[in-house]
Amino acid sequence: MTPVLDSHKTLVDGLKLAFEMTLRSPEGIAAPAALLWTDAEKEWLPLIPILKSAIPQLYVLGEYDPESKTGPVIWLKCIVDRTLKEVAPDADLTPILYLPGIDRQVLRAGADCPVSFQPLVELQYRGAVWHQRDGRDWTVSAFLSTEAGLGLDIAQDMRTKEAMLRALPLLAGEPMSGLRGRRLEAEDFDRLAVGDPIRDLLSWLASPEVFQERCEPARWKTFREVCKREFDLDPDNGPSVAGDALLHGDGRWEDVWRRFCEAPQLYRGVISVLRDAKPKDLYVDEEKIPAKNEESEERLRKALKETLEMAQPQACDAIARLESEHQKRRQWVWAQLGESPLCVVLEFLAKLAGLVKSPLGGISIKQMTDAYADKGWWCDKAVLETLSTMKNSSDSDLIKDVVRLLYEPWLDQTARHFQKLVLEDPSAISSLINPVPGDKETCVLFVDGLRFDLGAVLLEKLEHRGLKARLSHKIAPSPTVTSTAKPVAASLQAYCQGKDQNEDFYPAMINNDQLATTPRLRDALQKNRTPVLDSAESSYGKGGEAGAWTESGELDTLGHKVGSRMVQHFDMELDLVVERVQSLLDGGWSHVRIVTDHGWILVPGGLKKIELPSSLVGTKWARCAMVKGETTPSVPVFPWFWNPQVLVASPPGAGSFIAGTEYAHGGVSLQECVIPEIIVERGVSVSRAKIGDIKWLRLICRVGVGGNIKGVRVDLRQNWKQANTSVATPKELTGTTISVTVEDEKLEGTAVAVVLLDESGRILDHKPTTIGANL
Prior knowledge:
Blueprint: H1 11-22, E1 35-39, H2 48-54, E2 58-61, E3 70-71, H3 73-81, E4 96-100, H4 104-108, H5 123-126, E5 128-129, H6 140-145, H7 158-166, H8 168-171, H9 186-192, H10 197-206, H11 208-214, H12 217-231, H13 239-248, H14 252-262, H15 270-276, H16 290-307, H17 312-326, H18 333-336, H19 341-355, H20 365-376, H21 378-389, H22 396-424, H23 426-430, E6 442-446, H24 452-464, E7 468-475, H25 482-489, E8 496-497, E9 508-509, H26 518-527, E10 548-551, H27 555-562, H28 570-586, E11 591-595, E12 601-602, E13 608-609, E14 617-620, E15 625-627, E16 637-640, E17 643-649, E18 655-656, E19 663-664, H29 670-673, E20 674-681, E21 690-697, E22 700-706, E23 713-717, E24 731-732, E25 737-741, E26 751-757, E27 763-770
Parallel strand pairs: 1-4, 1-5, 2-3, 2-4, 6-10, 6-11, 13-18
Antiparallel strand pairs: 7-20, 8-9, 11-20, 12-19, 14-15, 15-17, 16-17, 21-22, 22-25, 23-24, 23-26, 26-27
């Protein structure tokens, strides 16, 4: 098992990810109402002030103090039930309740639990509990050292444990990369507590009262002397003077600003200090002034609202101009702190605005489906990226409206053209449908509702894991619903048939004329010597002559349940699929074939309502309906895959027979019909390149790289995601170390990132550094 966290992340990042993983719900299970975090020894307590800044849905059991999100048991229950709206978390966030002094076993005692804690007992069943696999509380030592946590190598003597607990607040923002690869002892943790005046200064600025409370008188005196000597500042005069100095960045204060920018989430309180600071003159960098960013955000908000009054082409041009004006703000520290949500999402809106200018065309079904599988899906992915970027924002509705304005005309026009081609030759699309083959050493992994753009994202995740994978596309049967398409995905096409009478688009099993439901398909697979593996089975030894079959993922369930909010779950869902693939390969399968049944369309705010009288059809879903007898609806009709004599009505373009539907499938569109197939192999001798040591000699950066370095290039960028922020000429690795030279000496002292790229330009790893820093 690999640790929960990449090595370049911090302890805070690790805890956030661990909480997210605990809150995952299996298919068919309601999401937890809360996450209980028990800590009998109160070991984690010193870290809580820092975590409150990074995790807004964190609440603490203690004396009533709503401003610090702390209160008694009954107050916490009100938070969970969201009866205190002024302090409850956003609707999409699950409350995390930190319970210092309470052991999980005490809560499990039920009626024997102390009366004051008994109201929390039922949350064990309505919520989730963060604990180790053996049921014990997560101690600091266990989380830092076990493979289910951060996987650090820590000495187990009492002296080391005490030093580790003393250093806990200092560990919060420490990159794990600096702690891996060696055994950590007491001296390593004590070293964190000394020799870093900039970190201490920022910690004080972010929370003066909390910092001073943690300081013994002797340490506070030392801190004051260091501040006077190095920063010309006496902390006893309060943070306002420090804010003025940080704003102007003279001398040593420029180092303080750079450090703040490297990990601003750990020092959120600095925002208030800078907001109150007074510029001395007109030469202060505007990126350091929170008010400048806030003014720009408001200006952008107003401009985006104005686009809603425009036609789509004019709105696309307007958004392109806004991107040109505001893109520089994504390099400012406020974007990292979540203070520039509209500026951040504008990047994806601009991408979408550029893509929707060219609806997909083609003179044949194959030409159009091939074009979609090549680059056409980029537009759909831009929509998902835009929506997922705006989570938990008060401007979410505004962004959804803008997305709809840009995307719906493109989606509708593309779908209408594709439907026209299918209507002209319905047999042409059926000829492109091929059943999934069953191979002896291959396990078929079925992921319901894996749309093509998400298949491309999944491919990247698999390759990121170091697996060899290849993506191709297939065509889903019509109507694009699970009941019709799953038998084809399960290689059971020869075992099913279509009849004149059917229910919910199910074909019938040939041997007994019963509907081909999922349980019956599984029985047919077993009888066809294709074992069906449950979610806990991975062994190749269970395979038959036609391999095996298993299922994973809840994408389609999420879509029907939460509509456009499903985008917030994509990353986690795809990660679960990757874990399932890895477990199958580890179980001995030489290949895993990832397949699906259908795609879907998603339009925030709902698809356009198309009227279809119920008297003309039998079963009616949002994107398909079974035509009755000889009736002739005024909407497009297509032959049912299992019996061409039976007709299926479909809304024209991107419409819906049911009002208010954001997510739907069953119709005829590229998004529903073009589906991915991914074949993943094991035994590939590829280890992903990773950044090791970074050392500077003035403007020359010497980088050590481990793993597979074939074709890998090293770049230095001010924004690791953007190639146009490079400050050096990228160089290809010929050995495990390389020297890269910064081209502009004025950049010395600038924060940059070392970035590893593969031959296609995909980012393999990145790590922050400072030009000229002596690491």
